[in-house]
User: Fold this.
Amino acid sequence: MEVEVKQVESLRFVGVRVEFFNSKHSVKEAVNELKKRVMEIRNIKDSSTIFGITTFQINYVVDPNNLIYYVCYEVSKFDEIHNGLEAVLLPSHAYATISYKGSMSQCQEAYRALDNWVKVNGYEQDKEASNFDIYTAQHNWHEPEHIENELTIYKAINKSK
Assistant:
């Protein structure tokens, strides 16, 4: 697995929130809800690509489990946001990125490889910025162990001080 550093311009998303510390529903359920509501979301760039966005709350440093995850579609601009959906804006930022293909039970290997690369190459995770994952049309949400599942992981980084 090869890691790249990319500067990503600001991105806009509309999607469904999953709160891990107060789980109303799972990521899979959120994906199902997002897909059912696709016609309610205006200006979608590509409805075959789903983004998973991890945003850390202000108290992240005190409680590392205090995070919010959004399952979203990227949009070209914000328009009417229907009840139960949320808009997420990610500002321009540098990311370390790695692609993974395989069963989701093994994807932590890619996250570990990316974390290690960041440390070894003079970067640190920016805990005030959001991370995101891109799930392609190949990704089979109903078969997490499908060996053709694909995702690309983006970790917000800064140069180490």
